[in-house]
Amino acid sequence: MTSIASLQSLPSEFVVKLSNAMIISLEGEQADSYLQGQITVNINKLTENTARHFAHCDNKGKTWSTGYVTRHQNKLLLVTNEDAGSHSLAQLNKYGVFSKVDILDDTQTYSAYFISLDAVKTNEVKAALSQLFSENEVERLLESDTPDNGSLEKVESEHGVAYFANTSCKGIIVLLDDNGAKQINSLIEAQTLSCYPQTVFDAIQIQSVHALVQGDAVAEYVPQMINVQALNGIDFDKGCYMGQEVVARTRFLGKNKRAAYSFKLEGNVNIKRG
């Protein structure tokens, strides 16, 4: 696995193994209605062809986790990081006992990758993805590389899902079963694709102002403080969900006095988050 000093050193064609990803699945006849009452986006409008940014909050509107929500076959998937995901999983299971829904840490079912858009367009990667998702589906994904009203274009098959990451460095996130992961890994092993560690995707998310909470930052900020609304990750017109009152009041009464920004320094410095 290759390492770099800065994002400026990245080639245009590359892949990142998302080793810190946590994938929570919800499945069952009440999975949609249950998650509708838990996160900031309208699950009832989440189609099989889309993914969305989301936040999951406590009853005070403080954020347990952020990430992407999408569907795969009969499951709803929340894609976040390990630290935040462990908090969300515990809270979802705490209240999920009253609904007909199975809530699991499904991380081991999928291998997660970020693949740059230029890499996806190469013949080798495009051919591999076309075997997993069909050529027409991959073409549809490539033709829709900008968010539509907050929805990110997505394709799926029995092997997994792929959707646009909505990052400043354009690319897709791919969640694959073992057979699908073998195809991507074979491209890496053949050195067709340069492979980078999780820290590179972390840097891309920072550059894109995609805030992922972890450590002391869990349950510390309302979603607007960490840019979730700018990613269309809050539907202010949906019904009740955990923390909705505080999130709505923060918007409509102008109570938010913090915001997330991305900036760059020329030298190395030690900073304390928060």
From TrEMBL:
A GO BP entry: iron-sulfur cluster assembly
Keyword Transcription regulation: no
InterPro entries registered for this protein in UniProt: YgfZ/GCV_T_CS (IPR017703), YgfZ/GcvT (IPR045179)
GO function term, MF aspect, one: transferase activity
Alphabetical keyword list: Transferase
Coiled coil: none
SUPFAM superfamilies, per the entry: Folate-binding domain
This protein's record includes keyword Transferase: yes
Name of the protein: Glycine cleavage T protein (Aminomethyl transferase)
Native source organism of the sequence: marine sediment metagenome
